[in-house]
Design brief:
11 helices, about 60% helix, elongated
Length: about 200
């Protein structure tokens, strides 16, 4: 993995791809599924898949930055490298990888916000962003985002899918219909003033 990352960093795309293919030939190693794209972003996505399958999801202690010259070593860092190279869908994969990780909730929310803005007709990213806002104790913003996601779903005839996702997102005894009816009242409430 490190050899492939070094090869990518120095523009040796064929060598990076060769190291990826060697992984597939090594018995007992997690191998990326499907056919990888031979461009740098595709190689990064394939390594992210391999790292995810081997359970190497994160590198705790520091934030990976492809611009700083760091080499990717985990699924998250490979996805961030792929995103920096313009890989389509890398942001959605980052958000999916971070699902359920409370310690990385703010990073997930940043990616979901970007996905929501990038796909204005889809309610899914906005719904997940709203739910994460609530998890992060930003209740007013979360309820607003959920109500907006519901409006998008209704506009596209996907109300059943919206409520199915919403009900599967938390405790079954939540009455989301009632909660969302009060959303517009919540939006009109003044913000608390802290002295």
């Amino acid at each position: 993995m490190a050899a492939s990352a070094c090869a990518l960093k120095h523009g040796l795309h064929d060598a990076a791809l060769a190291f990826l293919r060697c992984l597939r030939l090594t018995a007992g190693s997690p191998a990326p599924r499907g056919k990888e794209r031979p461009d740098p972003a595709g190689i990064c996505l394939a390594w992210a898949q391999a790292a995810q399958e081997s359970g190497d999801l994160f590198s705790p202690g520091f934030m990976f930055s492809p611009q700083s010259g760091m080499l990717p070593e985990s699924a998250l860092s490979w996805l961030l490298a792929a995103e920096a190279l313009g890989a389509p869908g890398a942001g959605a994969r980052v958000a999916g990888l971070l699902r359920g990780r409370k310690e990385l909730l703010s990073l997930r929310m940043a990616y979901l916000a970007g996905e929501s803005l990038g796909h204005p007709r889809s309610f899914i990213a906005q719904l997940e962003y709203g739910l994460d806002c609530i998890r992060a104790y930003r209740v007013r913003e979360g309820l607003f985002e959920i109500a907006e996601a519901r409006a998008k779903a209704e506009k596209t005839g996907q109300s059943a899918g919206f409520f199915s996702r919403l009900k599967n997102s938390g405790p079954a005894d939540r009455n989301w219909e009632k909660i969302l009816q009060g959303t517009y009242a919540v939006k009109k409430m003044p913000d608390p003033v802290f002295a």
